[in-house]
């Protein structure tokens, strides 16, 4: 038992067994030595190394962020482009990529109400509705009118007041929603992900061309989606694996309605898939096959029901996996191996319970890790710790 973790380090046991089954040798006792990568895999929820108390969580591709009750943003993981919001953060013990397994406070002039880290950049919304972004900005991802990186938060141009912002899990673009229900996006436009009818990029927010008002908006890898006030989902951008949910192939440069007749209460936009939650708590997903949770591996360009007849209170979509929380805080995940938190490294095309019997109040699925906060306020993460995204100091050889 490692005092930092609070639970047994499952990856060691699992990977040694796999090595023996594979007939691998190398150790004096005939067992195979674990590689650094294998030692960085956490298959069950593991307490991150901090005494801080958090209220909210937001997951990027290989970085993680949480908010305190006072709006302080603390992030850990990959900091190659300054996406942690702290230019000097570097506590990794090996490797060439700047990163931190310890939470570092994002340097900001204001308190945050929302956070949204992505693969190379991050965005946040302060309590006054001003959006801020930081990290990789060469393609205009920071929305400040420039095309340059920034290791500290910079204000989005345009004097907008937003109620929501989303930088996606793997996205180069970002989108936000104002209080009138208009969606705005910025960054590279070659995918059509800005939703303004062109493939031009923009380093300032441009309005998504839509006659309907949105209640939420989110960014994926090369697409974005929104939910209108009637519960109809709309998507735009590239359409790999049928991620736009239109029932047909081809990109869309403006919002197109998701087919199927479903009305959703909330929307979770993933890397190359999306999920919607009905008012009754039923989950439906579309796009990349393994991430859909319907018991198959088939891609789908229309929404399909997540297996198991679960009633979820909330959903979170990562890069290639998703998780749902029930009303009592039980977590179920499905998708790519090692990220379901089930205690095994096996991928699952149906929801499986997260190990440990925890009850969570919030959860966020990312690219290489998932993080959550228990009902008691304990921050936990699981997945791949290669750049410190799980918050563990085991990055050395």
Quick synopsis:
With 397 residues, the protein is mainly beta. Helices cover 4% and strands 40% of the residues. It has one domain: Methylamine Dehydrogenase, Chain H.
Give an account of the 3D structure:
With 397 residues, this protein is mainly beta. The protein has a single domain (51-73, 112-384), classed as Regulator of chromosome condensation 1/beta-lactamase-inhibitor protein II (Methylamine Dehydrogenase, Chain H, 7 Propeller). 4% of the residues lie in helices and 40% in strands. The chain has two helices and 28 strands. It has helices at 10-21, 36-39; strands at residues 41-47, 56-59, 63-67, 73-78, 99-105, 112-117, 121-126, 131-135, 150-155, 162-166, 174-178, 183-187, 202-207, 214-219, 223-228, 233-237, 252-257, 266-269, 273-277, 283-287, 300-305, 312-317, 321-326, 331-335, 348-353, 360-365, 369-374, 379-384. It has a four-stranded antiparallel sheet with strand order 1-28-27-26. A four-stranded antiparallel sheet has the order 2-3-4-5, with no helix packed on it. A hairpin with a 3-residue loop joins β22 and β23 (321-326). The longest helix is centred in the first third of the chain and has 12 residues, at 10-21. The protein is globular, with a radius of gyration of 20 Å. The model is unreliable at 1-30 (pLDDT under 50).
